[in-house]
DNA sequence: GCATATAACTTCAATTATTGAAGTAACCAG
DNA sequence: CTGGTTACTTCAATAATTGAAGTTATATGC
């Protein structure tokens, strides 16, 4: 039967996962943000089957994460680029990479990439900061609070761990 | 045919996605980190079909993200908890939530939750910081650099955007 | 004693999705 | 006119997901 949709769940994580699509999608997005843009390059880099790649790219276009750009006429050829919405997913990939490196998810033992400061080469990681001031806040000092669109169920769950 | 495995790709993102499993897994992890732990609660909260939930939980246990804990004998009943490895995925979910809220992925218009500082109630977001000092660094000042385990292909790609 | 309830699943057949292999379309180069 | 490039599509086989219903072991109410 048809895979269930998350839509209607009133959850931004569920919505995000729905827009992204599946496990291949974040790899496609990873490659696009690394500078790849052509169908065949994406295929070679990810190893994704041709039919699946075509389907994923279509989905990502509909979701507004990727756009198709004609880069030559005769013969007509299109490439794929991240939209601003797609670029904005970078934190998801950084978080996945950090976690994957920390727990050796690739099984290879050594990280293949690392994020560093352009100016001094020092390693960078994701952390919670005050949205206004940019000051770092340790995770223990953070709390998830019900927002304007919270359901009663969500509200009850969040109150439990105040 | 059998869905392709990412293993062997030498990429921590691919590895992480493989360990996590699929789109349901992050919702399960979201609920576990919110305090749910019982099979039926997870089912009710996510709407995931029973058979699929059982399969996902098994996979997450094998991946070391979730553990099964007996909480009563007679009748024997187990609940599910995040391991430290599982808890450590929090940044992925925070990043997904931020993105989902920013682009209204749920289609609801209003965020259901928000991360705030316990001490002053101010909103928190994920940002890049110096791993050693905790000082925030703007994204434009960051660079992805080849790590010790990088393949030649990766190295070439990264050099292109120096 | 017996029906009902609870919790955590399992089983099943039907339906979709994914896959690898092969093929297509539109051109260009020699 | 043969071969190469790029971006796919088509196909049949296989695998995964689904909703509905059933299972197991026990407790609870009457």
UniProtKB/TrEMBL annotation, chains A, B:
Answer whether the UniProt record assigns the keyword Iron-sulfur to this protein.
Answer: no
Q: Which InterPro entries match?
A: HTH_HxlR, WH-like_DNA-bd_sf, WH_DNA-bd_sf
Cite the HTH hxlR-type domain residue spans from the record. Answer: 11-108
Q: Which Pfam families match?
A: HxlR
PROSITE patterns tied to this protein: HTH_HXLR
- Origin: domain of life: Bacteria
The family database entries (Gene3D superfamilies) matched by this protein are listed as: Winged helix-like DNA-binding domain superfamily/Winged helix DNA-binding domain
Keyword annotations: DNA-binding, Transcription, Transcription regulation
Q: Which GO terms describe its molecular function?
A: DNA binding
Write down what this protein is called: Transcriptional regulator
Q: Which organism is it from?
A: Rhizobium deserti
């Amino acid at each position: 039967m048809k895979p269930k949709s998350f839509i209607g769940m009133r959850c931004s994580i569920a919505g995000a996962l729905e827009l992204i699509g599946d496990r291949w999608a974040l790899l496609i997005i990873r490659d696009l943000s690394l500078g790849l843009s052509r169908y065949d390059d994406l295929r070679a880099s990810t190893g994704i089957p041709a039919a699946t790649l075509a389907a994923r790219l279509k989905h990502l276009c509909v979701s507004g994460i990727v756009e198709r750009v004609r880069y030559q006429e005769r013969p007509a050829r299109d490439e794929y680029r991240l939209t601003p919405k797609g670029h904005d997913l970078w934190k998801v990939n950084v978080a996945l990479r950090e976690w994957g490196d920390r727990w050796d998810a690739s099984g290879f033992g050594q990280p293949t990439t690392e994020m560093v400061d352009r100016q001094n080469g020092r390693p960078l990681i994701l952390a919670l900061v005050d949205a206004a001031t940019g000051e770092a806040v340790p995770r223990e000092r953070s709390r998830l609070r019900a927002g304007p669109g919270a359901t009663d169920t969500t509200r009850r769950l969040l109150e439990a761990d105040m």
